[in-house]
Amino acid sequence: MTAKTILDELRPLGRESYKKVMLNHGVPEPFFGVKIEELKKIQKRIKRDYQLALDLFETGNYDAQYLAGLIADDAKMTKRDLQRWAEKACEPLSGCIVPWVAAGSPYAREIALEWIESGKDLIAAAGWATLSGLVALKEDADLDLAEVKRLLQRVQQKIHTAPNKVRYAMNGFVIAVGSYVQSLTALARQTGEKIGPVTVDMGNTACKVPFAPEYIDKVAARGSIGKKRKTVKC
After folding, report:
1. Domain that holds residue 33
2. Which of 23, 118, 122, 137 is most buried, by CB atoms within 10 Å?
3. Residue 123, exposed/middle/buried by CB under 10 A (0-12, 13-18, 19+)?
4. Are residues 115 and 63 in the same domain?
5. pLDDT in tens, 112-166
């Protein structure tokens, strides 16, 4: 199985109606407009394939790149691989596929802390999203909770002056800490209250920025605070 055969398989699965929706969400050409449910059928068949994931990402086709993230063997991804993906990713992929794979890699914390210092907005946003994935996956005993507290403080101080997509990812980090790190739920909720509503230009979409305290409260109401995830990919 090669990247070319996968592209040939993806092409007829594209839908113009879905493509129009994705264009509104900032997905750039080239792409076919394949729904995620179709990509997941292929993922189920392939499962994990490190090299094929790299080859698919290199095609530059959004559908193929999304699939690449789904089938990537996170544990085999090198720091160089992750950096290349972060630098080549379009805006939507920098908020999902790149951080999803990075969070499951051996370099999650290291590369996330480097990325949040980047002067490139999409890379910085991917860094914060990777940190969100990290707290969702790692047991609290394996997290540096003092560092997580410092990162919450940093978000509180800088979120409203951060670039558009970085603000969104920072807000997501507050929510992730409140939802997945039980000992810091109260602090994360308090941080969200101090920050207040976060304004982000979501483009020509109906997407909204969640208010962190309300979101954390919903997670608490479900009885899901502190329940870790096996993967952040979806």
Report:
1. 1-72
2. 122
3. buried
4. no
5. 999 999 999 999 999 999 999 999 999 999 999 999 999 999 999 999 999 999 9
